[in-house]
Amino acid sequence: MQKRDMNLFFKSIPLFLSLLMFASFLKGQNRSINGDGRKFKLAPVQKVTSSIGPTMDGGRLGVNRLIDGQLPASGWRSTWTVWMKKNPSIDFDLGEEKRIGVIRIYFQPWDRADELMELKVEVSSDGENFILFNEYKGFVAEKGKAVWAEVDLRAVKAQHFRITPKYQGWGNQWGEVEFWEINK
């Protein structure tokens, strides 16, 4: 009898852990940093456009790869969205106004560790008239290795976001862009 109870106990552990993980997923992801108790959920992007089309193989793949949820592998530019020697302005339409706390950009420096020199973030409610929100600097990563750049917006309410990178070295090589909505 005791052995049967123990077997039942051990078989129920995976179910309990699954339910616990599912419950935490429903509440949103916790991305807090030192006393920052905000909770986030990934906001879907409805549409992405670029002022300059991607170059090299990235031109064949298009800018929609930035919002497909698929991360390219580190190393050569097989499925990266690439702008060689170019600084595009990339517009993201979230479909409706959302309170965004964090933008994450999956990028890979190629020539220099500090290749992503600057990001300019602009916001708009209509997609036509953008205002500068902020400029961010200091993105450093190992050459040839993919990494996430995280931009803390605190709490910006907008539907449209324009991100303009400024490179030094080879160009811009991006894999994915995520918008994290503050979960109430």
Summary keywords:
2 helices; nine-stranded antiparallel β-sheet; 9 strands
What would you say this structure looks like, in words?
The chain is an alpha+beta fold and 184 residues long. It has two domains: 30 residues; 144 residues, Galactose-binding domain-like (Jelly Rolls, Sandwich). 16% of the residues lie in helices and 45% in strands. The chain contains two helices and nine strands. About 10% of the residues have low confidence.
CATH architecture of the largest domain: Sandwich
Query: Which topology of the largest domain does CATH recognise?
Result: Jelly Rolls
Helix percent reads: 10-25%
Overall outline: globular
**Radius of gyration (Å):** 20 Å
Work out the number of β strands. 9
Summed over residues and divided by their number, the pLDDT gives a mean of: 84
Distance between the termini: 47 Å
**Tally of helical segments:** 2
Residue share in β-strands: 35-45%
The CATH superfamily name of the largest domain is: Galactose-binding domain-like
Order of secondary-structure elements: HEEEHEEEEEE
Structural class: alpha+beta
In total, the number of domains comes to 2
For the biggest sheet, the summary is: 9 strands, antiparallel
Low-confidence stretches: 15-32
Q: What is the class of the largest domain in the CATH system? A: Mainly Beta
